[in-house]
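Hi all, long-time lurker, first post. I run a small reading group and we've been trying to get comfortable going from sequence to structure in the token notation. Rather than ask abstract questions, I figured I'd post a concrete chain and ask someone more experienced to write out its structure so we can walk through it together at our next meeting. Sequence below, copied exactly:
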Amino acid sequence: MYAPPHGDQAGSLRRQVPWRRRQQAVQVRPGLGQGFREHLRLGRKGLAIGIDIGGTKVAGGVVDAEGRILSETRRSTPGSDPRAVEKVIVEVVEELAAGHRISSVGIGAAGWMDLDAGTVLFSPHLAWRNEPLRANLQSLLRRPVLLTNDADAAAWAEWRFGAGKGEDRLVCITLGTGIGGAMVMDGRVERGRFGVAGEFGHQIIMPGGHRCECGNRGCWEQYASGNALGREARILARAKSPVAHELLAAVDGNTDRITGVTVTELALAGDAACRELLDEVGEWLGLGLANLAAALDPGLFVIGGGLCSAGDLLLEPARKAFARNLTGRGFRPAAGIELAALGPNAGLIGAADLSRVSSRMRS
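-- Answer (accepted) --
Happy to help. Here is the structure in token form:
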């Protein structure tokens, strides 16, 4: 991955914490690839299309060099058939490209990637197994295509334009159907030795716990994701608990219709039971972040994804659980925990920007 210069931030400024203010005052890195950054600055104009493929939706947008979305569209993910998903991607790109001159296309997809080969090795939510996605899409689209992990794309966007701008060591967590994760360390997306780093959602946080799509039990995303929130709400509603009357009324008694979105909307409207459910998910989130802090020691966690529409109803219990479980608490600097500035569009913004940078490097 590459490290273009910081652009204008496309989002609100995050709050500063005292520890980070002191760190930023001393952590000056004048040798961080300045010549390389200037080289990229010369060639980062133009428009690119970013595609964010999730377990439930395919979102696309035309993105300019400052991270602004000029037009966008989305479709439902058509099951798990690889060819059907490719067809939807092509439809989205063709629709967006009709009114713009596009230089490249970036695809952010959930799963483990061989980025050099452009292959999805494994996707826990889609039926991709050693899928040559980049080659397939380049053949169909006849345009330059960059393939990246969707969480990496979101982290890149937040580092370039959003809540992580200026932070040397950033960990981004995306909460949606599952949990995605990514790291930007000293201006580079860190993918690990085999290209599969950042699958934080599949750390086992509860041995013998809920079965995960990945095949293991007790993965973090089974406790701190939109799916987990919806599952716990359905359990509560099916038990006919009197505290679940608002939940049941919202879905006309059909508990199968209860999702994480349902719970979040009711919580924001003031429903006590749904706020309690969000509080529990937030506690699991904070516990997992404390584990990551012990291993990675970032300066900032940026939390994105659809579940973050809950705002502080999710983040405040997460911050409390993080502080309570942090190794060496009270005797060490603690990372900040902030909401992503770019919202659910971070993935497509990052995918587009990475494709633009990659295209520049090939020219």
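A couple of things your group might point at:
Residues 272-296 form the longest helix (25 residues).
The first strand starts at residue 47 and ends at 53.
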